[in-house]
Write a structure and sequence with these properties.
505 residues; alpha+beta; 6 domains; four-stranded antiparallel β-sheet; 30 strands
């Protein structure tokens, strides 16, 4: 009897325990009104791949990640309350993902216009030494290209047949007239009445004709002092500078007007830079620019001279001319330099540069509509000022935009827009796979379907990653090496699936 009572007590205890456990389980599994609902699961490596149940990503083998609806709302409500492209991110997630917002504000300052310049000699400081008559070169002296020469330095000696007759007339005209020729070879009057006006004119005429034949003032003066005919005509440098061109050699015959040397005074140089017509207003004459030699760390100051009127027919740019002193001759002809000019910018609305998403065709930012809700907005940009960019159209002062983590918000926005779009609005068309593939596939514009996992992928990216396979005259594209290997192990299985897909289409 006691054993029977004990057995009944144990059975009742087990039943009570089971009932309590079921009640506790029901309480814990009953969804809370504030529970988060899962919309779908996505591949973390390929967000375009979505599934209605959890699992493993077919391309990379990673677990699919859930995408939740807004807390406390249903799936329909969460999609209906937000406009197209808008995304809701709670404060905790913003801190976790590093998303920050900034205020649209008016700012002003200066920006730097940088252009590439080329060093050229000043036209007024380039000297061309030419022949005044026919003759030949006897010898030359330290006249290599690139040599730094001094004023009146002897570069070569030549023989000119016409020199003797004119030099004889010059000596006859100056005979018996002390001091008839000055230090610079010009005619002087040592005392009144030394020679008449006709004699002065005669001496000046002979001196000019000698200069025309190539004699320097120093050689004319020496001839007047020594009263001897010159055996050669000396070719001398007219100024301090560098020899840019040399066209003579010992024993060479030359004709009248032949160029012997081209010498440039590089103590001051010009810098020519290409600028666009819209930038001309910033390069006003007298503006000081900063010139830097690449890879040398040397800087110079240059003054804007003027803008040349000619327009380059190829680049459609104008030539800006700057003048610069050249201490130590660091700036050489045809050398490239960096020209930097500060430009004052008028006040305007600006946002941080990281807030802007530039796709090439359009620019947009994400504006905070309410706490945690951001919507994309297309804007028109102006100048970039250091780490900020000017907004010409699309924003008002005081609005708040996403300034950090912008690309994360943009990815979520695109993902939500893709999920909200009805299937019939997603453009599809029948195309033939690229590179000679024989099987027709249903693809979206610019994409093909991976035959292994069924994902839509970019054919160009598959080619660059070498995730392609050629078989029976057809080319197949894969999202990853793993899908490519799966297809290689059992191609007939995947080809049969492609044929069935084509048949359905």
């Amino acid at each position: 009897m006691k054993r029977t009572i004990s057995a009944v007590a144990v059975a009742l205890l087990m039943i009570a325990s089971y009932a309590a456990g079921r009640r506790h389980t029901r309480q814990n599994t009953t969804p809370s009104p504030n529970a988060r609902r899962v919309l779908y699961w996505v591949d973390p490596m390929h967000p375009d791949y979505k599934s209605d149940h959890p699992g493993i990503a077919p391309d990379c083998g990673m677990p699919l990640e859930p995408v939740y609806a807004e807390p406390g709302t249903s799936v329909a409500a969460s999609e209906a309350t937000l406009p197209d492209g808008a995304v809701g991110i709670d404060v905790d997630k913003q801190q976790l993902f590093g998303i920050r917002v900034a205020t649209v504000q008016k700012s002003w300052g200066s920006e730097k216009i940088r252009v590439l310049g080329r060093v050229v000699p000043e036209d007024t400081r380039v000297y061309r030494i030419t022949a005044g008559s026919d003759g030949f070169i006897r010898e030359t002296f330290n006249d290599s290209i690139g040599e730094l020469v001094k004023r009146d330095q002897k570069l070569a000696s030549s023989y000119v047949g016409e020199t003797l007759g004119i030099a004889s007339g010059f000596l006859a005209a100056t005979a018996g007239v002390p001091g008839a020729v000055g230090k610079d070879g010009s005619r002087t009057m040592p005392f009144p009445g030394a020679v008449n006006k006709q004699g002065v004119s005669s001496i000046q005429g002979y001196a000019d004709r000698l200069r025309n034949l190539g004699l320097s003032d120093a050689q004319i003066k020496q001839m007047a002092e020594s009263h001897q005919l010159p055996e050669t005509v000396d070719v001398v440098s007219p100024a301090d500078g560098f020899i840019l061109a040399r066209n003579i050699a010992p024993g060479q015959h030359f004709d009248r007007s032949s160029e012997f040397y081209r010498i440039a005074d590089l103590s001051k140089v010009w810098i020519l830079a290409d600028i666009f017509g819209s930038e001309v207003q910033h390069f006003r004459p007298g503006t000081i620019a900063r010139v830097t030699l690449p890879d040398q760390g040397k800087t110079f100051s240059a003054r804007v001279s003027n803008t040349l009127p000619q327009v380059d027919p190829v680049t459609r740019t104008l030539k800006l001319r700057l003048e610069a002193d050249n201490p130590g001759f660091a700036l050489r002809p045809d050398m490239f330099v960096n020209v930097e000019l500060p430009v004052r910018v008028a006040p305007g609305l600006t946002v941080p540069l990281d807030a802007l998403i530039d796709s090439g065709r359009e620019q947009r930012v994400f504006v905070e509509r309410s706490k945690g809700v951001f919507e994309p907005r297309q804007v028109e940009t102006g100048r970039r000022l250091s780490d900020r960019v000017e907004i010409v159209r699309g924003l008002d002062e005081g609005e708040r935009v996403v300034a950090a983590g912008t690309f994360l918000v943009d990815s979520e926005s695109r993902l939500r827009s893709s999920a909200q779009a009805p299937p019939e609005q997603q453009p599809q068309k029948k195309v033939t796979p690229p590179s000679g593939s024989k099987a027709g596939l249903t693809v979206q514009a610019g994409q093909v379907k991976d035959p292994a996992c069924g994902m839509m992928i970019d054919a160009a990216k598959a080619v660059s990653a070498r995730n392609t396979l050629h078989r029976d005259g057809a080319t197949y594209y894969f999202c990853s090496e793993r899908c490519k290997q799966n297809f290689t192990r059992d191609p007939e299985h995947y080809l049969a699936r492609i044929r069935r897909s084509v048949g359905h289409d």
